[in-house]
Automatic annotation (TrEMBL):
Keywords: DNA-binding, Repressor, Transcription, Transcription regulation. PANTHER family: HTH-TYPE TRANSCRIPTIONAL REGULATOR YJDC, TRANSCRIPTIONAL REGULATORY PROTEIN. It comes from Cupriavidus agavae. This is TetR family transcriptional regulator. The keyword Cell cycle does not apply. Signal peptide: none annotated. SUPFAM superfamilies: Homeodomain-like, Tetracyclin repressor-like, C-terminal domain. PROSITE patterns: HTH_TETR_1, HTH_TETR_2. Residues 6-66 form the HTH tetR-type domain. Residues 29-48 bind DNA. The keyword Transport does not apply.
Length: 202
């Protein structure tokens, strides 16, 4: 009979996530992970696999509790045009108030992933494509209800908003100034006749 694990897997994963988020994938050593998680190296490998597998699990958990949660909640809870405003209002709020200013773990991973690591690049690209599709759905729905002009190409707008979100989250890591972040969002949303107003963090 297999022996039960003598640790809380979710707590250990959360500790690994904090370590990766603070230092990045490449700079985080296995020793640092075992110390943060309170595990021996064999226990870590038995429970989570190697460092890469652990990182991908930590990133997946982060996304479930952040970006994916936000997309589901906002798309279900707001009319499409207001959903776009809400999404960026929350991004501004996170960028201005999150401490320490680590930025978004997904965007940090995008900046770190190199051509020599196609698996990591593919994981990031998949998530960013999901975010772009989220924007495209909202723009298309807003055009259908008349809140965004039909003259805009929904795919082009979605790509613009994706670039805006990525750029803003990079900026917030080193310049977490609310006025600056609002200024990056305001012109882009104005093109769509939307407002960069604050609706609260949700």
């Amino acid at each position: 009979m297999a022996r039960p694990r003598q640790f809380d897997a979710q707590t250990a994963l959360a500790a690994a996530q904090e370590t990766f988020w603070a230092k990045g994938y490449q700079a985080t050593s296995t020793r640092e992970l075992t110390q943060a998680m309170g595990l021996t190296q064999p226990s870590l490998y038995n429970a989570f696999g190697d460092k890469r597998q652990l990182f991908l699990q930590a990133l997946d958990d982060y996304l479930n509790r952040s970006l994916r949660e936000r997309m589901l909640r906002i798309e279900a809870g707001y009319p499409p045009a207001q959903a776009l405003e809400q999404f960026f209002a929350e991004s501004i709020e996170r960028g201005a108030r999150e401490l320490p200013h680590r930025g978004c773990m997904l965007i940090n991973t995008a900046l770190e992933a190199s051509p020599d690591d196609p698996e990591m690049q593919a994981a990031v690209a998949t998530e960013l494509a999901m975010l772009r599709d989220f924007f495209a759905r909202l723009v298309t729905a807003a055009q259908a209800d008349g809140s965004i002009a039909p003259s805009h190409d929904a795919d082009d707008v979605a790509s613009m908003l994706l670039s805006l979100q990525v750029g803003m989250r990079v900026l917030s890591r080193v310049m977490p100034d609310r006025a600056l972040l609002e200024a990056t969002v305001r012109p882009a949303l104005a093109v769509l006749k939307l407002r960069a107003t604050h609706h609260g963090p949700g």
